[in-house]
Amino acid sequence: MTSPFRTPDGGRIDRATTVEITFDGQTLPGHPGDTLASALLANGRHQVATSIKLGRPRGIAAAWAEDPGSLVQIEAPFPEPMLLATTVELYDGLVAHGLPGQGRLAEVPDSARYDAVHHHVDVLVVGAGPAGLAAALTAARAGARVALVDEQSEAGGSLLSGTDRLDDAPASQWVAAAVAELAAHPEVLHLQRTTAFGSYDDGFVLALERRTDHLGTGAPRHVSRQRVWRIRARSIVVATGAHERPVVFADNDRPGIMLAGAARTFLHRYGVLPGREAVVFTTNDSAYDAALDLHHAGVQVQAVVDARPEGSPRRDECEHAGIRVLSGAVVTGTQGVERVTHALVAPFADGEVGASSAIGCDLLLVSGGWNPAVHLFSQARGRLRYDETLGAFLPGEELDGLAVTGSAAGGFDLAGCLADGQRVVRAALTALAIPPAGEDPLPAAPEAVIPAAPLVLWRVPDTSGAEGSTSFVDLQRDATVADIARAVGAGLRSLEHVKRFTTIGTAHDQGKTSGVLTSGITAELLGIPVQDTGTTTFRPPYTPVAFAALAGRDRGRLFDPERVTALHQWHVAAGAVFEDVGQWKRPRYYPQPGEDMEAAVLRECAAARTGVGIIDGSTLGKIDVQGPDAAVLLDRLYTNLMSSLKVGSVRYGVMCGVDGMVIDDGTVFRLAEDRFLVLTTTGGAAKILDWMEEWLQTEWPDLRVHCTSVTEQWATFPVVGPRSRDVVGAVFPDVDVSAEAFPFMTWRDATLDGVPVRLARISFSGELAFEVYVNPWYAVAVWQRLLEAGRPYGITPYGTETMHVLRAEKGYPIIGQDTDGTVSPHDLGMAWAVSKKKPDFVGKRSFARPANADPLRKQLVGLLPVDRETVLPEGSQIVEFRADGQLPPPPVPMLGHVTSSYRSAELARPFALALVRGGRERIGDTVHVPVNGTLVPVEVTGSVLIDPEGARRDG
Amino acid sequence: MQLIACPWCGPREEVEFSYGGQAHVPYPDSPAELSDEQWAHYVFFRDNPKGRFAERWNHSAGCRRWFNAIRDTTTYRFERVYRLDDPKPLATELASSRRSTAP
């Protein structure tokens, strides 16, 4: 197969190797080194897709990431939507098709690996064009730690696209030597195919390295496909070049219309002729290079259309080559359907367009000047300044630690860019106190030809009669001059509003070609200076980044840490169904064959209430509080008195914030005069340790107390139920477990085969219960001893669901489920846990606020559905009927909501806990809960539904 | 991502820190003697200035120490950090504000 538009030689492609790709079902040849776009052009194909709203044919309009036209989807070797043909490197077996503005997500999971690397440098250089290479070399030679990143497949930047010479040889030789020199410096990291897509505070830059995308099916499995580099640089040099800017005219979106510089890239880098017959439309001198290079490569250049009345000093060069130059002329429109066939050219003077005539062509090159790629500078909150000569926005201030150089700073001659790259990095090195190397030569570049002043021309007046509705500003959004006019006509003045009204700049390319055009056209329509419209905010990412790359390794099981108890494998083997409690995996219930959750929980509850159950409570937060002032600290943080607690005893306590609302609860063991073990809720462990440390450090640094988390140092197994004494007594024969010798709310140390074990009489179910604490190394052994000893009594492991039912039946609240940060201890019916003796504790003063004494505060009560059948959904609202038995008119006042709701084995009916306005006064009343559109009558009760006298706790 | 200079550890990434609100709002000596309004001011009211603000920060994923910082709320720049036992900054320091040029 031959490619008709491939040049006979030249370019940076591997002509010795031919690869085959499939595009829109057509098999096409290409070479390694091609992009999908250059391979399509080599085969004469310009149209890639159709546009999103209007369905107009669209083609390749640029040569890299600024292209608004060539959206494609890759189907093989791995489906990936929304890529640009201009940035997809070619490999054998590539299957792709053009996209009508939007792609389709892959339907199979992405099996590739993605990862991230942190990197720290003295100097980060972004862009390996002439300015960036010069900067990187100078920094490397000075011995600085350097990173050089560049988004292309090879270094060189603009030198890859032209015919420049350095040191009297093709510039590519200098590039190769520079790359080799950088590679020899051990402190230099040089990454190609790596896009710095975001710059953030304090020298932090994110860059995406595409490591295997270009290898296709040959990508090794062990190498990550893409890598996010998290680079922290003491100094950043932005050498990101410039994007060529189009001029807007009627029907400027046809395939075959391309930026002039892109045509040079396709010719010199890829060995491709983008057409046979070209018209070049320009406002500046740079496009003359394209006209002459294409002419010399054999393209028939029909005319250079220069909008400037005085033309260019390079006119002679063209005319000498036989190229017609029309000065003071513009392209007013085009003809053609799937490819441009004619450019309509008209005289242009003083903003007035004359009569047009058609010039036949299959390629229309456009240049309206160059926009420095200031994205990273602007993201770092650098202010931009509008340059009237260039018609572009340039960095408008100096930033600490970030310098812009080369054409990104508005420099457009090679010698100047090289020198400026060296200058800015030397200044950066000086600021870092790194002396420059003695030997630091720059290559000799030919003396720059001073170009004639460009003309700033955003758009050609529309003489087609379409009134700007085919003059495309943002090709990806099908947004036109008419759309901007409509926005301005609707009264919009801010460019941010124009952007949102027209959607310009919101597509895949984020306005790389359309952004500055919109600034200029909007300013023109408003009759104000372009400086005053400014630009829209540049935000990361510079080019699209796959979520998979941002996620990196933090996917699936690695998304968030999983905490498991020492018994986890036992739970898994026992068939537990797990639930997430914070980061913990906790058994929710242990279904037996044929059981659903409801059946399993009823069985587990019955066992704990009538026989014996056991639960893995190891996730409870545990804080070791030590020091001579430990009791003082706890007295200040708990609502009740802890200093009076005797060694060997346990007390339940509640903690409030300064606002008097409950933040946590749990039991406190006094281990010694100067040592307590504080138990917190599973979810509150870290928060309460923080809370204690905050008060100790910020308010009471005089207290001699240390707090240490010991959550994972103790495995904890509550053994619960009327037969629990038998079980614990059997496992610990040396311990007198009688109610007299081992009373409720006390703890004892014991040993089991020499292993220290701590036992405590604590109950979260109202039943006789013992908590067994042991070093997690021995957790499985102790757990199995307890199971063995419990077998005669049918000991039943139970999960968190049963634990919740048992505690709710007793009215024990779960902080964070039955409370929401607006609930005081009094609201929970826990006035008994609030000390009246202590002069102060955190939250005490708030209890005296009038709002806290309001009898209509929401209070925790029980609810019993009258039908004895409905399990009220948690979160349900509660309403009441008026005296006449009717609902009040909407909006119906809400009395509160259901906080916990379960089916009770003991009560043989469902029940709930709820926060209800003035709830304790309503005990005995009937209120209603809407469930699936019907109002379910429920009786308000006290919150303790089982054993309100507490007769069971001693067995 | 900003770097925050912990007075004990040096510059670390901001994700290691947690915010503690306005600094120099001490717990009242005798809450019981305060009026409801005075107590409510302690519990609920904090300044929200545009410009320099003395704040509490905690190096929660590092040394876990609390410290104070003067930060400009318009530029996010940390003007300086200081220890809890260092003196309260003068009003003149908090009043002066300058536009950051930091990246």
From TrEMBL, chain A:
The keyword Zinc does not apply. Binds 1 NAD(+) per subunit. The keyword Mitochondrion does not apply. Residues 470-553 form the SoxA A3 domain. Signal peptide: none annotated. Residues 567-838 form the GCVT N-terminal domain. InterPro entries: 2Fe-2S-bd_N, FAD/NAD-bd_sf, GcvT/YgfZ/DmdA, GcvT/YgfZ_C, GcvT_C, GCVT_N, Sarcosine_oxidase_asu, SoxA_A3. It is found in: Cytoplasm. It comes from the Bacteria. One of its GO terms (cellular component) is cytoplasm. Residues 858-947 form the Aminomethyltransferase C-terminal domain. GO terms for biological process: tetrahydrofolate metabolic process. Its main location: cytoplasm. It is an enzyme of class 1 (oxidoreductase). Keywords: Cytoplasm, NAD, Nucleotide-binding, Oxidoreductase. GO terms for molecular function: nucleotide binding; sarcosine oxidase activity. It catalyses: sarcosine + (6S)-5,6,7,8-tetrahydrofolate + O2 = (6R)-5,10-methylene-5,6,7,8-tetrahydrofolate + glycine + H2O2. Its EC number is 1.5.3.24. Belongs to the GcvT family. This is Sarcosine oxidase subunit alpha.
TrEMBL record, chain B:
It comes from the Bacteria. GO terms for biological process: tetrahydrofolate metabolic process. One of its GO terms (molecular function) is sarcosine oxidase activity. Pfam families: SoxD (PF04267). InterPro entries: SoxD (IPR006279), SoxD_sf (IPR038561). This is Sarcosine oxidase subunit delta. It comes from Geodermatophilus obscurus. The lineage of its organism: Bacteria, Bacillati, Actinomycetota, Actinomycetes, Geodermatophilales.
